[in-house]
Amino acid sequence: MNPVPTGESDFVQATSAAGRALRLMAQHKVPATPENFEIWFKFSLGTVPELTKTINILIAAKREFDGATNRSLFVSYIGSGPDGDAKHGEISNPLQTILSRARGFLATSMADDSKPILPLDGVASQIPEIRDPRTLIQDLTGALSTTMTRATTLQAHFNACLQELGNIRNHLAAAEQRSKTDALTGLANRHALDEFLRNAQIVAMESGEPLSIFLLDIDHFKTFNDKFGHQFGDQVLRLISRILRDGVRDRDLAARYGGEELAGVLPGADLRVCATVAERIRQAISRRQVTRRTTGEILSSVTVSIGVAQFVPGEALTSLFERCDRALYAAKHGGRNRTVTECDVESAAA
Q: Of 322, 318, 321, 339, nearest to 330 (Cα)?
């Protein structure tokens, strides 16, 4: 990875990269904002390999660098904004403290390396003159005991550091998991969905493999909330979320898209396969009886409507969701409790 030019000798390189960044922005009709310039300046320098790889793929696919794409590039490869900075500080401050402490222990260890030798040397110097070997043994035992005490203390300090680092690692993993999980359903949240889709999109364009999504909407969800209360509505949402999660593969993503809408992202699946998976999930939901926990009352089955669409290489993800949303709209207005693909919508309009 090339360092960002900082010295006077790198002035020419930085100027050249800045000029190239501006030319590329003009060529691809990228608005000249500070965030966008930083993206293309680092692309021109080649300091962020993943950013360079992503932009090259988007250019090859003739992808339009619209506002959503530019913002996604910035968030993914340049900076994560105030929230990300706060999380970084939350972890980095304790790490800095432990690092400083560990450095102190190492310095102490290095200094102490020679200390045990001094009393041992003193004992050795007594050997030619010693008359009572018991005195020599006593002095030698004392020197060795001092050495062992220092080593034990140092080991205890390092063990404490390792334990604290383990706690921070676990805290970081838990915080990352929370930041990507919807609290109510346990599914991936919208942020995690967007990140997963960005990566899946790049893989699909590189490999030529298909990528499909489906949107699932609970039929008459407002009626559940109005009639039985939000707690029961939440119970229904959690139940359907479990069925959705169990109905997709490990490599797929089940997410909460917003409100009562859930989403499935299926890398490597074309429209037909995705529609088959979505229909299987729809049927599983329609067969499930829902019991109101507060009263034990068994209600009629809950149903969902699903729209399915396949990613077109080079298109913006907003376009993919628009087509999927149109298919979902057709499913709901076609009688609900059904799965409709984007091809079904096109056929109906022809």
A: 339
Residue-wise pLDDT for 214-230, tens only, equals 999 999 898 888 888 88
* Cα separation, 263 vs 321, whole angstroms: 10
How far apart are alpha carbons 239 and 260 in whole angstroms?
Answer: 12
Pairing of strands 304-310, 290-291: unpaired
Distance CA 342, CA 350 (A): 13
Q: Quick one: which H or E segment has residue 10?
A: none
State residue 82's pLDDT score: 41
* Residue positions counted in the chain: 350
| Catalytic one of 90, 164, 260, 279 | 260
Contacts of 21 (CB under 8 A, 6+ apart): 37, 40, 41, 43, 44
Tell me the two tokens of residue 19: 């000029």
Residue 177 CA neighbour count, 13 Å, CB half? 7
Q: Identify the bridge partners of residue 318 per DSSP, sorted by sequence position.
A: none
- The DSSP code sequence of 129-178 is T-S-HHHHHHHHHHHHHHHHHHHHHHHHHHHHHHHHHHHHHHHHHHHHHH
Local structure of 306: helix, strand or coil: strand
114: Cβ contacts below 8 Å, ≥ 6 apart: none
Mean pLDDT of the chain: 79
Alpha carbon separation from 194 to 60, 306, 318 (Å, rounded): 22, 19, 11
- Cα–Cα nearest to 340, from 282, 286, 259: 282
pLDDT at residue 298, as a whole number? 72
Query: Please, are residues 301 and 287 in contact by the beta-carbon 8 Å criterion?
Result: yes
Has 279 been annotated as catalytic?
no
More confident residue, 261 or 134: 261
Cα angle 214-173-242, degrees, rounded to a multiple of 5 = 35
**What pLDDT sits at residue 106?**
53
Q: Which residue has the tokens 């039929």?
A: 219
